[in-house]
Amino acid sequence: MRRSPHRVPGLLLALLALAAQAPAQQRPALWPLPSSVQMFPQLLNIAPDKFLIVHGPNSTADPSCSLLQEAFRRPTVFGEHYEFTISKSSITDTPRFPHRGILIDTSRHYLPMKIILKTLDAMAFNKFNVLHWHIVDDQSFPYQSTTFPELSNKGSYSLSHVYTPSDVRKVLEYARFRGIRVIPEFDTPGHTESWGKGKEASNPNIQNFMEKKGFGNDFTRLESFYMKKILDIITSLKKRSIVWEEVFNDNVELQPGTVVEVWKGRDYLQKLKEVTSSGFPAILSAPWYLDIISYGQDWRGYYMVDPLKFDGGCGKVPWDDLEMKLNSLPLNHVNAGSELEKQLVIGGEACLWGEYVDGTNFIPRLWPRASAVGERLWSPENVTDLRDAYNRLAAHRCRMVSGGIKHSHRTIQHSQAALNFQVGPAVLLST
Ligand SMILES: *[C@@H]1O[C@H](CO)[C@@H](O)[C@H](O)[C@H]1NC(C)=O
Ligand SMILES: *[C@@H]1O[C@H](CO)[C@@H](O)[C@H](O)[C@H]1NC(C)=O
């Protein structure tokens, strides 16, 4: 299933994430959910001639980890040329949300390694700190497992469309140097058609099992059983899980601390309220499905979303712009959430599902549209001025281009229509 609000959802899905152990409530969290953070109230003023960025003796990063350097570099434009200067800077900054993710999907279309690495570069430019790697699905199984090699031998598009263990290590390492945590997703129990090519399904066994358990033909009970079991296994490995919201909606018994990813439709604020008032941390992606393309500057719709606006009443529409209304605001009444509930919203993800993107158009489809999501997840909630954002985004786009991210012009130049037509649906719903 493609998690689009415009489609009928298929079976429940599970996102099994190797998330860190830090409790989600621990705030503020910087990169990437560290075990502890100490904040000091005093400001340090550093003289320009004494300013040097070095790595501590025990630092696991090396000098190629350039996050801080990037923060102080400002390009100055002279005609066609760029010059980088270290500006005298005073920066007081901290992210609003600890989880700022980009979802990539390497099953519908295989993404070449260089595109994944380029995506990590762009993420670092935009202060994203989580790569949610939807690595396998119905369409293909590119993950090469050393334990079950036949899964990718038979389930990948071809033997050259796989991610070898060394590719995966390279992605993890490249991400780590950019302050990005990689969360792999093995979608289950739906979306596993590609697995079946390497492992024949054992239907009679499953039917016997359901009989023995007294489930009759109720596959929902089978799924709930499966989900609970797999989530318990993950907990026993001292890992935490992230699940798509269906698992929560279907009342599967969840371990405390299981993160629920809210992705469905326009009533996402109400769903965030429900999830957090049940005590579970939540991630929002519903309004940030960047695979859904529209005309013009759709970044504004992403920008105007506020994940914490579940404060009673309806979403207010302060402007008359259909595109933004469609993208960013729920219509129905939303119950007000408490401060405690709002603290359980740990962030969000911009998702670029892979039906209509591959190595040829992935980067320009994602950037700079995702930059708007990046700012929403980083900046304080009162940073909402669209005109100001436009100017900064235009400058930021130049910075990214000069940094080698060749992306789309259309989102900040009004005149160009999308070049890619959707000729779907190319995807089977799983049942
Ligand atoms: C570096 O690690 C060593 C050994 O674990 C420890 O004794 C030392 O205090 C650490 N130094 C710093 C600056 O953290
Ligand atoms: C946001 O609020 C803070 C704290 O009240 C204030 O200092 C800052 O100027 C505000 N920023 C904007 C863009 O309104």
From TrEMBL:
InterPro entries: Beta_hexosaminidase_sua/sub (IPR025705), GH (IPR017853), Glyco_hydro_20_cat (IPR015883), Hex-like_dom2 (IPR029018). Belongs to the glycosyl hydrolase 20 family. There are 3 forms of beta-hexosaminidase: hexosaminidase A is a heterodimer composed of one subunit alpha and one subunit beta (chain A and B); hexosaminidase B is a homodimer of two beta subunits (two chains A and B); hexosaminidase S is a homodimer of two alpha subunits. The composition of the dimer (isozyme A versus isozyme S) has a significant effect on the substrate specificity of the alpha subunit active site. This is Beta-hexosaminidase subunit beta. Its EC number is 3.2.1.52. SUPFAM superfamilies: (Trans)glycosidases, beta-N-acetylhexosaminidase-like domain. It comes from the Eukaryota. It catalyses: N-acetyl-beta-D-galactosaminyl-(1->4)-beta-D-3-sulfogalactosyl-(1->4)-beta-D-glucosyl-(1<->1')-ceramide + H2O = a beta-D-3-sulfogalactosyl-(1->4)-beta-D-glucosyl-(1<->1')-ceramide + N-acetyl-beta-D-galactosamine; Hydrolysis of terminal non-reducing N-acetyl-D-hexosamine residues in N-acetyl-beta-D-hexosaminides; N-acetyl-beta-D-6-sulfogalactosaminyl-(1->4)-alpha-L-iduronyl-(1->3)-N-acetyl-D-6-sulfogalactosamine + H2O = alpha-L-iduronyl-(1->3)-N-acetyl-D-6-sulfogalactosamine + N-acetyl-D-6-sulfogalactosamine; a ganglioside GM2 + H2O = a ganglioside GM3 + N-acetyl-beta-D-galactosamine.
